[in-house]
Amino acid sequence: MPREQGRKVVASNRKAYHDYAISDTYEAGMALTGTEVKSLRAGRASLTDAFAEETNGEIFLRGMHIPEYTQGTWTNHEPRRVRKLLLNREEIRKMQGKLRDDGVTLIPLSVYFNNGYAKVELGLAKGKKSYDKRQDLAARDAQKEINRSMGRRIKGMP
Question: pTM for the full model?
Fold first, then answer.
């Protein structure tokens, strides 16, 4: 059977951009079992409360929920098990240096299939304060109003 081409998003963490300021993003492979891959291909995964952490020079994804495969037997997986992420040693070293900063964490932004391989996009994130969130909303609303008035001007409306 030919391998899938392109990128197919399984789950995304849209709330992450609201709650955190994302500075860098990384793409990592995941060490998964067979039933986890089948469940992901069915489009079932949740990234709420998921985070990544460094342990003994390796990066692990914790809290990600992949439901059990419905046609699975006794070989089914644990839904919230700890999953190892596959990264280059240099990428891990860079992350370790940045994670030493206060308040910086690694969070998964999306899970997807890239040319048939399950990948996770990680973001180096720093938590936003409530006033930062309000400023972002105000800037977004102002930009919408600017775009709306520019559209009217182009159309010749007042």
Answer: 0.73
